[in-house]
Design goal:
about 240 residues, alpha/beta, 5-stranded mixed β-sheet, 10 strands, about 40% helix
């Protein structure tokens, strides 16, 4: 093992469980290998990038837009993006297999003999589109149809920052459209949501509409690295 110690800046949000888990994984790797020390970083990248210039040997970050990507690229050091909201020529990426998440969710529902399927996510979110497309394809391959929720399109930069910085609980901005979509689903419906907040919004609306979860609507939420059925029983 090299005696050199590498100074690594980490820009990962800690307001979400997924971000905290990423930080724990990075810290575990650094402790096990013994040649990383952390320099600067945090969640406020605008100030943090200036502070690490000339000090860090590399950066691990969740990059929500091209502005942050350009600022990190100008540092002239290796950068790894854990968000993959976009493709940036000078930045490497490490990402979950979103298509696999969609396929596994579909297989899980099909094995439990659901016959009506739906996906709820965001059209402007790359990870959501990948999960939704794989879920729909897998459901259709099994011989069923899949309803895909078409929300009012959010600006990609706005949505990227919103998801990264932790969306607020409560009524979603597309509440009326989402409620109408849920009411129209054939039941019992198996619904995959793109991530935890979207699942919370769906479950809350189901309760307001008098739809039982999971008997009328079984909701599975896919975190950015895993999936979990939301029901009365933990799996």
């Amino acid at each position: 093992m090299s005696d050199k110690h590498y100074r690594v800046a980490v820009f990962v949000e800690t307001s979400r469980a997924y971000g905290r888990a990423l930080c724990e994984g990075i810290a575990d790797f650094a402790q096990a290998n013994g040649h990383w020390v952390f320099e600067g970083g945090g969640e406020s990248w605008e100030q943090g990038v200036a502070e690490i210039a000339g000090k860090a040997d590399g950066v691990i970050a969740r990059i929500p837009n091209a502005e942050m990507a350009d600022a990190l690229s100008r540092l002239g050091i290796p950068v790894v993006d854990l968000y993959r909201w976009g493709e940036y020529p000078l930045i490497a990426t490490a990402d979950a297999d979103h298509a696999a998440i969609g396929r596994l969710a579909a297989e899980w529902f099909v094995e439990r003999r659901f016959r009506h399927f739906a996906f709820c996510g965001y059209r402007s979110a790359p990870f959501s589109k990948l999960r939704g497309a794989a879920f729909k394809e897998s459901v259709e391959r099994a011989g069923f149809s899949c309803s895909v929720y078409e929300e009012t399109r959010f600006d990609p930069d706005f949505l990227g920052k919103l998801i990264l910085q932790a969306e607020a609980y409560g009524d979603p901005p597309d509440r009326k459209r989402l409620a109408a979509w849920l009411k129209a689903l054939p039941r019992p419906a198996a619904v995959l949501c793109c991530h935890d907040i979207r699942a919370y919004q769906v479950i809350t609306l189901c309760k307001e509409l008098g739809l039982d979860v999971p008997r009328d609507v079984a909701v599975m939420r896919s975190e950015e690295h895993t999936s979990e059925l939301q029901s009365h029983h933990d799996l």
